[in-house]
Specification:
The chain has about 375 residues and is mainly alpha-helical. It contains 15 helices and no strands. The relative contact order is 0.16.
Length: about 375
């Protein structure tokens, strides 16, 4: 995908599909999955049960739609880098200033992640150092450095090289006291072993006692996820092909990524909790297909209006993630809708979930109208 890329330095406008895809992703994080679970409660059946299952994480090996949400966001973070960092490099921006900006953004994101993990509770013993924003910050930081010092081919080589190195480390480095044949199990994987021994407060792990869901070693392949987004961003910036060809090329790359990820999973299973190499390619393949679909509908065919709902969310994605941690939108929704709950009867779970979504979207819409965006 990278060999045919011809940079287009004068592109400065945002690609609408990227904002919409980011918003689509954050919609499920901020409460959209509650609609799916509510549908299953209201209309239990084979179809709603299938959706209900897909919106829960797989306990260990395997893949559900909800296991795509986090890597999709990291992928989109990478997709923006060629549209911002690469463009500024091509325009002759001062590299020292760019590096300072990268470090500043990394520190701010990491700090926000610590706040989300309990820093503001002023209880250091319960502070969770790893986290979603921390992983995004680290993946962004190292991916941005790779973009700063390498070309497209180099970025692709680094992305794939990280996955190979991570696979070999997980496979070949033994865990003390564990049969080496169990290297890809919850009890025997190296990433979990390191997390349990090096990260404070193991009782706060997302998947304790098997390791941290956003742990130390498993952050390494997340850089590759971000770099896959970088490669997709370069492709969308290219001028050699038409927008339709770019959409088709991105879809083809997604299909190849899925195929390679599936083949790799025969030895290194698709495991979100350790961000396995096969998981990176599997989630990356679906991320490319989704970006290709959004790009084709919005930027190629010009069907934009439907995406406004997601655009409002995508323009303030970090804001809603942080606000959702400290403000209970379901309580605000209850204040406005409590009088309707008795009338809803069996549909009350659906009304409650819809109310939460309405509250957080109206909050973001207010910020959007006021042109208030959290820029990190």
């Amino acid at each position: 995908m990278g060999s045919d890329v011809k940079p287009q330095p004068f592109i400065q406008k945002r690609i609408a599909s990227i904002d919409a895809l980011r918003g689509f992703d954050m919609f499920w994080i901020a409460g959209g999955e509650g609609i799916i679970h509510a549908l299953y409660k209201v209309w239990p059946g084979a179809t709603t049960r299938m959706l209900h299952v897909q919106f829960d994480h797989v306990p260990w090996a395997g893949f559900h739609f909800y296991d795509l949400i986090f890597p999709l966001f990291v992928f989109v973070v990478g997709a923006v880098l060629p549209l911002s960092l690469t463009r500024r490099l091509e325009e002759g921006a001062n590299r020292r200033e760019l590096f300072r900006h990268i470090v500043q953004r990394f520190l701010v994101l990491f700090f926000f992640g610590l706040c989300y993990g309990g820093l503001l509770d002023l209880d250091i013993h319960r502070l969770r150092i790893p986290g979603v924003l921390q992983r995004i910050a680290l993946a962004y930081f190292f991916a941005a450095l790779v973009v700063m010092i390498t070309n497209v081919r180099g970025q692709a080589a680094v992305a794939f090289g990280i996955l190979v190195v991570y696979w070999l480390i997980m496979w070949l480095v033994p865990v003390p006291g564990v049969d080496h044949t169990l290297w890809a199990t919850p009890q025997g994987n190296l990433a979990g072993f390191l997390d349990r021994h090096l990260i404070p407060n193991p009782q706060r792990f997302c998947c304790y006692p098997f390791g941290d869901n956003e742990g130390l070693l498993s952050t390494l392949p997340a850089i590759s996820t971000c770099l896959l987004g970088v490669l997709a961003g370069h492709w969308l910036r290219s001028t050699k092909f038409s927008p339709l060809r770019k959409a088709l090329g991105l879809a083809a790359a997604g299909a190849v990524s899925l195929l390679v990820g599936w083949v790799w999973s025969l030895h290194f299973p698709i495991i979100k909790n350790v961000w396995s190499s096969s998981y990176v390619l599997w989630a990356g393949g679906w991320s490319m297909l989704l970006l290709a679909l959004f790009y084709w509908i919005i930027d190629v065919k010009g069907f934009v209006r439907w995406s406004f709902f997601f655009k409002v969310i995508g323009m303030n994605a970090i804001t809603i993630y942080l606000v959702d941690r400290f403000f209970q939108f379901h309580l605000i929704s209850d204040v406005f809708l409590h009088g309707l709950y008795p009338l809803a009867g069996a549909y009350q779970p659906l009304l409650k979930s819809a109310g939460v979504i309405a509250m957080f979207w109206l909050f973001l819409y207010f910020l959007y109208r006021q042109k208030i965006f959290l820029r990190v």
